[in-house]
From TrEMBL:
Protein's recorded name: ECF transporter S component
InterPro entries: ECF_trnsprt_substrate-spec (IPR024529)
Hydrolase keyword on record: no
Entry's transmembrane regions: 19-39, 51-74, 86-105, 117-136, 142-164
Species this protein is from: Candidatus Coatesbacteria bacterium RBG_13_66_14
Keyword list, A-Z: Membrane, Transmembrane, Transmembrane helix
High-level lineage: Bacteria, Candidatus Coatesiibacteriota
UniProt GO MF annotations: transmembrane transporter activity
């Protein structure tokens, strides 16, 4: 079964197939960062945990996106100790915002996937900035910290906006048929 609006389509976040698929997206949100760390690749440039979260929102709506977004950093921390405890609440809020908003904008407001992903990324980054200002001690100054934390991921964010919506569209089409 699918939920259709005038412009957008998502797979409902209900039933065992949706739960298993979201568990797969959650698993990829754990494996991708682990592989990135093992390969000593630039995590802040690639944002490996963010991709499956936004994809979950675009495919399974706000419920699926919120679930994967909130759980990914928590499960990762439980299993690996990463992200660090000081940044964990900030990342939970950021990723939950990504998944929730990508799904909500796609499912309820009928925005196309590119716009939904872009607005979700902006809102997630704003939540990161707001909570980081309150929670993360940084001696170099707030704006220096934000530049170091957020600017490297701009290219990954733009790539997510370009690549994830067509992937989500294909996923939804195959889930429906």
């Amino acid at each position: 079964m699918q939920v259709k609006t005038a412009i957008s389509t998502v797979v409902p976040f209900q039933g065992w197939r949706a739960i298993l698929a979201n568990m797969g997206l959650l698993a990829s949100a754990l494996v991708l960062p682990a592989m990135t760390h093992v390969l000593d690749a630039p995590v802040r440039w690639l944002l490996p945990m963010h991709w499956p979260v936004i994809l979950a929102g675009l495919v399974y709506g706000w419920r699926g996106g919120l679930a994967v977004g909130a759980l990914a950093p928590l499960v990762s921390f439980t299993l690996s100790g990463l992200p660090s405890p000081i940044i964990l609440p900030v990342m939970v809020a950021e990723l939950a915002t990504y998944g929730f908003l990508a799904g909500l904008l796609r499912e309820r407001f009928s925005l196309n996937g590119h716009l939904a992903a872009g607005l979700a990324i902006i809102a997630g980054r704003l939540s990161y900035m707001g909570l980081a200002a309150l929670m993360v001690p940084y001696s170099g100054g707030y704006w220096d910290y934000m530049a170091a934390a957020l600017l490297p991921g701009v290219a990954a964010g733009a790539t997510m906006i370009l690549l994830l919506p067509p992937l989500a569209h294909r996923w939804v089409d195959r889930a429906v048929t």
